[in-house]
Amino acid sequence: MDLQNTVKEALTALYHHPDDAVRMQADRYLQDFQRTLDAWQVADNLLHDPSSNLETLIFCSQTLRSKVQRDFEELPSTAFRPLRDSLNTLLKKFHKGPPKVRTQISIAVAALAVHVPAEDWGDGGIVKWLRDEMDSHPEYIPGFLELLTVLPEEVLNYKIAARPERRRQFEKELTSQMEVALNILTACLTISELKEQVLEAFASWLRLKHGIPGSVLSSHPLVLTALSSLNSELLSEASVNVISELIHYTAAGNTDGVSANMPLIQVIVPQVMNLKAQLSDSTKDEEDVKAIARLFADMGDSYVELIATGSDESMLIVHALLEVASHPEYDIASMTFNFWHSLQLNLTKRESYISYGNEACIEAERNRRLQVFRRAYESLVSLVIFRVQYPEDYQDLSYEDLKEFKQTKYAVADVLTDASSVLGGDATLKILYMKLLEAVSGHGNNEHKEWRPAEAALFCIRAISNYVSVVEAEVMPQIMALLPKLPHQPQLLQTVCLTIGAYSKWLDSASCGLSVLPSVLDILMNGMGTSEDCAAAAALAFRHICDDCRKKLCGCLEGLFHIYNKTVNGEDSFKVPAEDSLHLVEALSMVVTELPPEDATRALEALCIPVITPLQEAIALGPESLSKRPSRQLTVHIDRFAYIFRYVHHPQVVADAIQRLWPIFKAIFDLRAWDMRTMESLCRACKYAVRTSGRFMGLTIGAMLEEIQSLYRQHHQPCFLYLSSEVIKVFICCCVTGLSS
């Protein structure tokens, strides 16, 4: 009794004491109490005590539930029947609520059934025991129905500390009693106020691998009740759950499984299709529309192989799913996205057509299906564009809202790539280009407000870049001609830059590519001076263009170096972050690789000058100043050397450069050997110089090896060992090459 009072006092303190420290102490005490053996009896006593308040009842029901789930083996084998009887009494006591308490007691009984074999419950296990209890005490049916609902759910509840073989046995026990459970639920249908609860329980049981034939379920009273509830004025969430589970069940297994369940499918599909008009009913509650959309999405996902045949009946489902995709609420429209992806895979993968035999028949059927679904995917492309448009209040979006908006854009991009796989990238591009033209022609002089539709269209054009032919000559030249005319609004300019980068391969292959490059580079320069995000996008695009168009750009070195120097020198007009400036270093290095050795020597020297100058200045200030300088002030320049040595593929030219630079590097090695961050950066730069130059490094490689070995004995930096291994590898490769020749 003293312990019961202590628990009550702790609960009172937890919920009502004004002092936070006292509440925390009470919380710790109660958590510790729940792990004790005494918690069984105390929780049971307080639940039976008529004077216990709601807080006590909730805590004790949760305690008893967790003890049954996790600590059942604490009890002696003789404790099962008294515990079952006590829980049964409590289930009857709380049959009208409080709901939280009743739910916890129901879960506790279900967890007990997981632990205890069916024979201990009597003939037929817990399901027949429950049926007998309901027959004997019909006044407590609501409480027993909740227990019947949670029973199948506990099969996959891994909070219950049951052994795997016992858990599997429990699932078999429930499955064997499926008919009994459905008979109980069917009998309860006569009580109209329990219909919602009955359907929830039915949905729960359907999640088991029950194996009931579709022909039986198609005429079952529970199924017919759920279907009729779909058409009631107040849409039942429980009926939606039932139909959703039935849809999943009919599609489970292989194609034969779908055929075997065709009687049930033929009952479900017409009833769900009758709900299509409600998708666009403005008077309908949004939650009801979401529930209806969920059913259509479930049908699409489950019957995608049947739908992919392109029959007239399947196209009705496709049109309904397009209706869902057009809903203004993204949460509703996005329910269909997985279907469009699955359908695309089914239409484009060869495995879907193997049953058609020879290649000619396979190709003919594939082309037929692609043609059938062409219009649907064209509509889909037009429907999803507005989803990626920035909201008018985008500047006021919180971090979480902005993150959610980005996720929406990525999801729409995936839908567009699915459409491109079916329609072809060039055809999809034409649709998106028309949307871009509408956006540009529609805003007149009001640039500030109307940049958003153009940005959305360009984002979509960028998303399908991998599917557009590099020789596309109808639309892409017009898009590239349009880009310089767009307003330099930061978000729009950022997307323009990313779009340019995405089509770098097209710029290299297109006949007009060379004439377009100057205007493209001007856009990127504007981007680098607009905002950090925009500058980062422009730097990335610059790298892609220099990678794919490097041969074309060899004649534009002066302009490229102008951009490079402004970026690396950190001029105020450019806002490229230090990390993103590495994209420009990499970009110029790839162009330099295409030059003949004589020109590459001069170009590499020009590449290195803005990088080495700050390091020379730092060394010139003296050892004390260099040793006190923050690591970042050195590594930002040294990392650029790593990129230069990695991407300039002229071994002799790089070897000559590292020989000239070695005194600077050695000074930093000597004065900053204690600084792990700077040493890692410098060793990385040397590693790439060694890999690129190889045997051409001559005396420098010996000096480098001697330096790092000496420093390792003093400072034991791991990066020294790694660089030593790289140097030794080059020596070995050179020796092997020399011997073999």
From TrEMBL:
Pfam families: IBN_N, TPR_TNPO3_IPO13_2nd, TPR_TNPO3_IPO13_3rd, TPR_TNPO3_IPO13_4th, Xpo1. Belongs to the importin beta family. One of its GO terms (molecular function) is small GTPase binding. Residues 98-243 form the Exportin-1/Importin-beta-like domain. GO terms for cellular component: cytoplasm; nucleus. GO terms for biological process: protein import into nucleus. PANTHER family: IMPORTIN-13 (PTHR12363:SF33), TRANSPORTIN 3 AND IMPORTIN 13 (PTHR12363). This is Uncharacterized protein. The keyword Phosphoprotein does not apply.
